[in-house]
Design a protein that fits this description.
Alpha/beta knot, binds S-adenosyl-L-homocysteine, 10 helices, three-stranded antiparallel sheet, Helicase, Ruva Protein, domain 3, single chain, alpha/beta, seven-stranded parallel sheet
């Protein structure tokens, strides 16, 4: 068992003998374990995803924003231009984060293994998704990461933000409550705000707490898409839509099931129910 050194500090974070560090976050004392001097060990499960970035300079600035906050996983989805010399210049020493950035062709591929996907949007309340403040989003993201899930925070294009279809892949939207008459931050500035909130939440997560109830691993994006496919098929087979277009019902059902934060066992249970409904529909059709 590791020896933990608990120290309550004054205003400023400081280093302690033995590699421990402590500080105050949001008015609360933060305790770091001497045997685990890395206060942000869960940061490795957090990724920042930039979709369709138009200016390579912003990719560099985002890398810098991540590194200052102890984050390292930058993911690019179909950037208009690959990172270049301007990106490196603006990364200002965060070249390691920039060089380690992974590129995917689309958002679904970039978040396929994620248990929680949060989409950052400059346009408040324009999407049919639960909307979180950055602080709430960071608390949820870190809680999931501590529980073992992969988590993505997704940022859109400089000109047009995230498309609706991309926001549909997210469990919730995040909006920085900026000036309502001028709410669109520069992409890297928005990344910095969220990275800072993640940092605070990660530091808070180092406060020792009772172990959580054991739970099945959270359902990934891929598991959820499999469930939605099966659900859509079943609704057709039981004639749920009765001639109406299925899109509206599917949008509402996606929102409902994404909000429920299902684990893998729960997804299997729902597949079982759907398979039975399909079987009954087939039997009814034969009669
Ligand atoms: N003109 C675009 C804004 C793009 S800014 C639009 O109207 O959507 C680029 C990205 O930065 C956005 O897609 C979003 O991910 C992030 N961003 C900018 N301002 C934000 C805010 N107030 N809250 C949350 N994210 C924001």
């Amino acid at each position: 068992m590791g020896l933990c050194l608990w120290v309550r500090m004054g205003e400023r974070a400081c280093a302690l003998p033995g590699g421990a560090a402590a500080g105050v976050v949001a008015g609360r004392a933060v305790y770091h374990c001497a045997m685990n001097p890395d206060p942000v060990q869960h940061a490795s499960r957090l990724r920042i995803v930039l979709v369709g970035t138009q200016h390579p300079g912003n990719i560099g600035s985002a890398a810098r924003a991540l590194k200052t906050m102890g984050l390292a996983r930058l993911v690019l989805v179909a950037p208009e231009k690959a990172p270049n010399a301007e990106s490196s210049a603006l990364a200002a020493g965060a070249d390691d984060v920039l060089e380690a950035a992974v590129t995917y062709p689309d958002l679904a591929a970039a978040v396929a293994d994620c248990g929680l996907v949060l989409g950052c949007t400059a346009r408040s309340r324009r999407v049919q998704l639960e909307e979180l403040l950055p602080r709430e989003a960071a608390a949820r993201a870190v809680a999931e990461a501590v529980g073992g899930a992969e988590v993505a925070l997704v940022f859109g294009r400089e000109r047009t933000g995230l498309e609706n279809a991309e926001l549909q892949l997210c469990h919730a939207a995040v909006h920085i409550p900026a000036n309502p008459g001028y709410s669109s931050l520069n992409l890297a500035a928005a990344v910095q705000v969220l990275a800072y909130e993640l940092r605070l939440a990660l530091l808070e997560a180092t406060v020792p707490t009772a172990p959580a109830e054991p739970r099945d691993p959270p359902a990934s994006h891929e598991h959820m898409e499999g469930l939605f496919g099966h659900l859509a098929e079943t609704l057709e087979q039981i004639d749920f839509h009765k001639g109406r277009a299925p899109e509206s019902a599917m949008r509402k059902l996606r929102r409902l099931f994404l909000r429920a934060r299902l684990d893998q066992r729960e997804v299997r249970l729902l597949h079982g129910i759907l398979a039975d409904a399909q079987r009954m529909a087939m039997l009814a059709g034969r009669r």
